[in-house]
Write a structure and sequence with these properties.
By secondary structure, this protein is α+β, with helices and mostly antiparallel strands. It contains six helices and five strands, in the order ααββββααβαα.
Length: 148
């Protein structure tokens, strides 16, 4: 009967003093990519779709874009970041994560808004792919015209 004499894990003093992590959410969009970003106080780890940011984004410009709001606010080692991204390509996904991180940082520290807005990190890029029109080869391209 050792189970009765031992304390359960829920009753231990360590479990009672340990607080659950407080997450802050931010939503970012770019082109057809949507990123749901969650930040919490931590050591500066960034995971995108359960993979490290350096393995997920192969291009240096995409990795720099994701880290840009943290560099601007000097918070590279203050927060752990988890992002779930769907849709679009790598550049669109990086832009979506950038916007999500910026929005989450503002919820944590409202003073960051002026810094992030001045850097252009809070502006949603409105550019989308133009639709293909009927009677044409693409959005702008026409079929070849022949006089004879």
């Amino acid at each position: 009967m050792p189970a009765q004499t031992e304390q359960s894990a829920k009753d231990s003093p360590d479990a009672q003093t340990k607080k659950p992590k407080q997450y802050t959410w931010g939503l970012g969009r770019r082109k057809t990519a949507v990123a749901r970003v969650r930040i919490a106080p931590g050591q500066g780890n960034i995971q995108i779709n359960r993979r490290d940011v350096d393995t997920y984004f192969t291009e240096e410009q995409d990795r720099n874009a994701v880290r840009a709001p943290l560099v601007a606010t000097n918070c590279q080692t203050h927060f752990d970041i988890w992002a779930n991204v769907r849709g679009g390509g790598p550049t669109g996904q990086a832009g979506a994560v950038l916007l999500g991180i910026s929005r989450a940082l503002i919820k944590v520290e409202p003073e960051f808004e002026s810094i992030l807005r001045a850097g252009g990190y809070l502006t949603r890029d409105p550019r989308m792919v133009e639709r293909k029109k009927y009677g044409q080869k693409g959005a702008r391209k026409r079929f070849q015209f022949s006089k004879r």
